[in-house]
Design brief:
Blueprint: H1 5-11, H2 19-30, H3 32-46, H4 50-59, H5 66-83, H6 88-102, H7 108-129, H8 136-152, H9 162-176, H10 181-196, H11 203-212, H12 216-222, H13 229-247
Length: 298
């Protein structure tokens, strides 16, 4: 297989009818490392919206059980990608996602914003750091895939295109990014988790490197000091060089899914999708919530 053969395969497919298959090919074959990093960043961005970051701090899911929360989120989302919306695994994953979110009083706007991050942040990351830019087919397919997920989650007023997802994300961040003490605790816990995946002496370097990849609005919302221009340039150039090196490698012949990521550490003996995720915590933020409507998967 030649380096661009899978891209040619994707371009022969229909980005609307074959959206989830195109998304699977892009995320599991073409850019598995980039999608993993971009989706980490996507979820991390949501903490800077105080209504989201504060809720995560109140539940303690991302401060006391950070690794488990990271693992469960990645595994549930990727089960839908790997197996499809109509599969038993996909339906089980969506059911658990819905059960978790319905336990708390989360607004439709915040739910839609989180969905927007899954569409927009991977494209922005890959266009900046990947071994090639995302094609239009992949971009459209990503928007269609997550619009389908949004419908299964009962989210209203879903964007109809990638451009609408992007506009929705930018508008929500401009209106809502702000300081919150609880959100900062969640952010610090997440940075500590990411650093823990590497040898201890590298932890400060990894934390500094992660901060160098963040944009100014995100840094301001968490009140982190801005990295120096030199640090930003070194870190971002290093990640771009990694993409250029991947471009020279043979194409991936086997898929790589989230369950294979070395960062997933909480289930050395395996897991059951139906057992993943959180359970309702009495007394936390209006449990349960009913305002999102009825999902296609109960």
């Amino acid at each position: 297989m030649k380096r661009f053969e899978r891209l040619r395969q994707i371009r022969r497919m229909d980005p609307y009818e074959d959206a989830s298959e195109i998304y699977r090919l892009a995320s599991a074959y073409e850019f598995p490392w980039d999608f993993a990093r971009a989706l980490e960043l996507a979820l991390y961005r949501t903490y800077a919206v105080p209504s989201i970051g504060r809720l995560l701090a109140e539940t303690a899911e991302f401060t006391r059980r950070t690794q488990k929360r990271y693992d469960d989120t990645a595994l549930l989302l990727d089960a839908v990608v790997e197996h499809g919306f109509g599969s038993e695994q996909g339906r089980t994953a969506i059911r658990r996602i819905n059960q978790m979110h319905r336990a708390y009083d989360i607004t439709n706007d915040d739910m839609r914003y989180v969905l927007c991050t899954f569409v927009v942040i991977p494209k922005r990351w890959i266009d900046a750091y990947g071994w090639r830019r995302m094609s239009r087919h992949e971009t459209v397919a990503s928007a269609v895939h997550y619009r389908t997920l949004g419908r299964h989650m009962g989210i209203r007023d879903l964007p109809a295109s990638y451009e609408e997802f992007e506009a929705c994300l930018d508008a929500h961040e401009e209106a809502h990014f702000a300081w919150d003490e609880g959100a900062r605790r969640v952010s610090d816990a997440t940075l500590d988790l990411m650093a823990s995946w590497y040898p201890g002496p590298l932890a400060p370097l990894l934390r500094a490197g992660t901060l160098a990849l963040l944009d100014e609005p995100l840094l301001r919302a968490f009140r982190y000091p801005a990295p120096s221009p030199a640090a930003r340039e070194i870190v971002r150039r290093t990640v771009r060089l990694r993409g250029r090196a991947v471009r020279l490698m043979p194409p991936r012949r086997a898929p790589h899914h989230a369950r294979q990521n070395r960062e997933i550490k909480g289930y050395p003996d395996g897991y059951q999708l139906a057992e993943l995720g959180t359970r309702p915590t009495p007394g936390v933020r209006g449990c349960p919530a009913h305002h999102l409507g009825t999902s296609a998967v109960e």
